[in-house]
Amino acid sequence: MTDDETQKPLTELLAPASIRLDAVAADRDDAIRQAGAALIEAGAVEPSYVDAMLERENSVSTYVGEGVAIPHGTLAGKDAVTDDAIVVLRFPAGVDWDGNDVRVAVGIAAKGNGHIALLSQLATVLLDPDKAAALRDATEPDRVYELLAADDEDA
Q1: CATH class label, 12-154
Q2: Does the active-site annotation cover 115?
Q3: Where are the alpha helices (DSSP H) in the chain?
C-alpha cells in the first residue's frame, strides 16, 4: 500500500449506496452489524469482519462523542478487509451505545495500517461540534458528501 492510498479523500471512500440516513437499530450491536453489512455490500470486507467489529466494541468503545461512533474491526480482523471504505449510518431515533446516545455511526475498513489515517481524518470532522451536528441532522446524501469534502479541502 502506498501513502497515497491512506490519504484518499473521505468522499472517495464513501459510495452513495453506503449512506443510510434513516436507519433504525435495536441496540449498539445491531447498529454495528448494520454498519458491517454496509461494508460487505460495498465490497470492502468479508463477512468475518463484522465479528471483528463486535470484538473491538466489546473491548474498547468506538463512541467518540458528539453523538457519533466509529465502529471498526480489531487488528485480527484486518485480513478480512479487501478495500478501504467508509459507510455512514444515521439513526434519527438514536441508539443506546453503552449509555451514550448515538445518532451517527461511521463504519470504517482499511487495509494495513490505513485505519489510523482514516480515524484521524474522520476525527477532524466528527469532533467538530458544528460539523457533527450537521451530520446528525443530514437528510440528504449530498449533505454528507459536503461535510466530508469540506474536511478533504482543509487537509
Answers
A1: alpha beta
A2: no
A3: 3-6, 28-41, 48-59, 114-126, 129-137, 141-154
